[in-house]
Amino acid sequence: MKQIVLLPGDGLGPEVMAEAVKTIGWFNKNFSAGLETSTGDIGGCSIDKHGVPLSDAILKKCREADAILLAAVGGPKWDKVDYAIRPEAGLLKLRKELELYANLRPAKVFDALVDASSLKAHIVKGLDILIVRELTGGVYFGEPRGIEKLPNGERRGVNTQVYTTHEIHRVARVAFELARKRKNKVTSCEKANVMESGKLWREEVTALHQAEYKDVELSHMYADNCAMQLLRNPSQFDVIVTDNLFGDILSDEASMLTGSLGMLPSASLGGIRPDGKRAALYEPIHGSAPDIAGKNIANPLATILSVAMMFRYSFDMMKEADLLEQAIENILNKGLRTTDIMAEGCKKLSTSEMGAALLGELDALKSTKVAARA
Ligand code: IPM
Ligand code: MG
């Protein structure tokens, strides 16, 4: 059996998770996928119940699991809690403790949604970028950090951007390996013109490329230029590899090229463990969206696409991943939409209706495949 820990979290998390769970159930029933799920708390709901955003018990459960599926954390309800135990701290702790150092954030434009982008259709049509963001280092975790009081009464806030050779190599390796399965192109982004850690990043990525990945096309770009190029000519990119903070920002920007945050999944992968398994967390990149939570209008497709990534990266279930992605594409082509991607002439569905429509499409795809084989 494959053990999956589900962390629905806060805001719209539980609603979109419910639809993902139905999809997982469909694959168990129709493909004997052997996916076993259990549920845990993270973020604000965990603070409410356990006083911390991620309890030791859930962390242990996640450590032992084959994969984790998380929906969203945070919300205004927890704005006033102590900074150290804010909802986001639970997510950061999970990333750090499980050493999920490679965060894969695809930005892919579905043909049916090309007009949802704020850029012109001809610029984003067919767009397929993968951002590989370093996730357990850099300024997010660097020491020293903190807010201190100076003798003159002023206050001083400090964070530290820090990277080592090993941290750079392991994430760059993931980027090069993935590029080989795509268009074989890596753009590495930093601020080598301003930061020593960026200079090191550039040198180490270059060294690894020279030693092991000469067949992959590598270019370097300052992160600010990358932000600009993503809007000017996004199709020039295949895989972008970058640090934790620049990756956070550039992936939000790239997501908007696709027109809907509600459509984008992500995977956070760790190293191969002694038992041969790889720690892995899958989550939609949208947040908890408290303003639309509980209304049954959220788009569950980013969470369901995260399930497809889980099939692909954790369980080697390529056929199933393809089928699931195909079903989603078909649904969009039929003009079925949640509010966030609604367009003229399309049919608006609720969260649960979208989940149900997807199961219907999976049934239909399965029977046409079976018929084709007969
Ligand atoms: C993300 C989010 C997180 C981050 C927050 C919620 C801590 O913005 O996953 O991109 O900054 O990494
Ligand atoms: Mg972010």
Give the total of domains. 2
CATH top level assignment of the largest domain: Alpha Beta
What series of H and E elements makes up the topology? EHEHHEHEHEEEHEHEHEHEEHHEEH
Query: Could you tell me which ligands this complex binds, including any ions or cofactors?
Result: 3-isopropylmalic acid, magnesium ion
What's the β-strand tally?
A: 14
Short description:
Helix content is 43%, strand content 20%. Helix 1 links the parallel strand 1 and strand 2.
Describe this structure in words.
By secondary structure, the chain is an alpha/beta fold. The protein has helices at residues 13-31, 44-50, 56-64, 87-97, 121-124, 165-180, 196-212, 223-232, 244-257, 301-313, 318-333, 351-373, and strands at 2-9, 35-39, 67-72, 102-108, 128-134, 146-149, 155-158, 185-190, 217-222, 239-242, 265-272, 278-284, 336-337, 347-348. The protein has a ten-stranded mixed sheet, with helices on both faces. A two-stranded antiparallel ribbon has the order 6-7. Strands 13-14 form a two-stranded parallel sheet. The longest helix has 23 residues, at 351-373. It is globular, with a radius of gyration of 21 Å. The two termini are 30 Å apart. It binds 3-isopropylmalic acid (IPM) and magnesium ion (MG). 3-isopropylmalic acid is lined by residues 88, 91-92, 248.
Topology:
Layout (H helix, E strand, L loop, with lengths): L1 E8 L3 H19 L3 E5 L4 H7 L5 H9 L2 E6 L14 H11 L4 E7 L12 H4 L3 E7 L11 E4 L5 E4 L6 H16 L4 E6 L5 H17 L4 E6 H10 L6 E4 L1 H14 L7 E8 L5 E7 L16 H13 L4 H16 L2 E2 L9 E2 L2 H23 L1
Parallel strand pairs: 1-2, 1-3, 3-12, 5-10, 8-9, 8-10, 13-14
Antiparallel strand pairs: 4-5, 4-11, 6-7, 11-12
Helix pairs in contact: 1-10, 1-12, 6-7, 8-9, 10-11, 11-12
Bound molecules: 3-isopropylmalic acid (IPM) and magnesium ion (MG).
